[in-house]
Amino acid sequence: MENNIALRIFSFAVLLMGAVFMIFGVVSQYRQFQVQTWAETKGNITHSDFVDDSEGGRLTIEYEYSVAGMRFQSTQLAPAFMLYNAREMANKYPVGAAVTVYYNPDNPEEAVLERQSAVTWVPIFVGALCLVIAAILFFVVQ
User: Fold this and answer.
1) DSSP code, position 98
2) Tens digit of pLDDT for each residue in 33-46?
3) Distance (Å, whole) CA 60 – CA 53
4) What is the pLDDT of residue 118?
5) Phi, psi of 115 (to 5 degrees)
6) pLDDT of residue 84
7) C-alpha 58: how far from chain center
8) Low-confidence ranges of the chain (pLDDT < 70)
9) Among residues 30, 39, 21, which one has the least CA distance to residue 107?
10) CB under 8 Å, gap of 24 or more: what pairs does 46-49 form?
11) What local confidence, expressed as pLDDT, does residue 140 receive?
12) How far is CA 140 from CA 12, 19, 42, 135, in A?
């Protein structure tokens, strides 16, 4: 009986985790699709800092760009979570580099340098897998 309750709690936790992953993945995918229609302008990298660490490095980028005569700054690299090689990105975006900036025409403060986020399908897949596992566990408990 106690094993049954523990299994139900575990299956609910897996279900909840799957739902969170699915929501995160769908929102990230939607955001990436939105960015595809954004306008583009030229910009410049004003800050590029690579810090080497045990996880492969951290990168902080800041860039400025102009839209309709107004100047903006951003630190957003991609529309959604993005796995990247920080050292390669630091080399791609050195201080002073001219870059293409993709900005939201309805809100020019919103901008990115990369339109693609390579891992947007991963959370959807992981979430779906968790939901399947939760469903199997739930029916095993019955």
Assistant:
1) E
2) 888 899 999 999 99
3) 13
4) 62
5) -80, -25
6) 64
7) 15
8) 1-2, 54-56, 80-85, 117-120, 142
9) 39
10) 46/73, 46/95, 47/95, 48/90, 48/93, 48/94, 48/95, 48/97, 49/90
11) 78
12) 13, 20, 57, 9
With b for 16 or more beta-carbon neighbours within 10 A and e for fewer, the 23-40 pattern comes to: ebbeebbebbeebeebee
- What is 33-96 written as a DSSP string? HHHTT-EEEEEEEEEEEEE--TTS-EEEEEEEEEETTEEEEE---SSS-----HHHHHHHS-TT
Q: Report d(CA 54, CA 86) in Å as an integer.
A: 12
Say whether 32 sits in a helix, a strand or coil. helix
Q: With contact defined as beta carbons under 8 Å apart, do 63 and 43 qualify?
A: yes
Q: What is residue 112's predicted lDDT score, i.e. its pLDDT? A: 94
Instruction: Report yes or no: 102 and 35 within 8 Å, Cβ to Cβ.
Output: yes
Instruction: Quote the CA–CA distance of 15 and 9 in Å, as a whole number.
Output: 10
Sequence letter at residue 30: Y
Residue 34 in contact with residue 17, Cβ under 8 Å?
no
Residue 103 structure tokens:
């900005």
In single-letter form, the type of residue at position 141 comes to: V
CA 47 to CA 43: how far, in whole Å? 12
pTM confidence score: 0.72
Token pair in block for residue 131: 């939901």
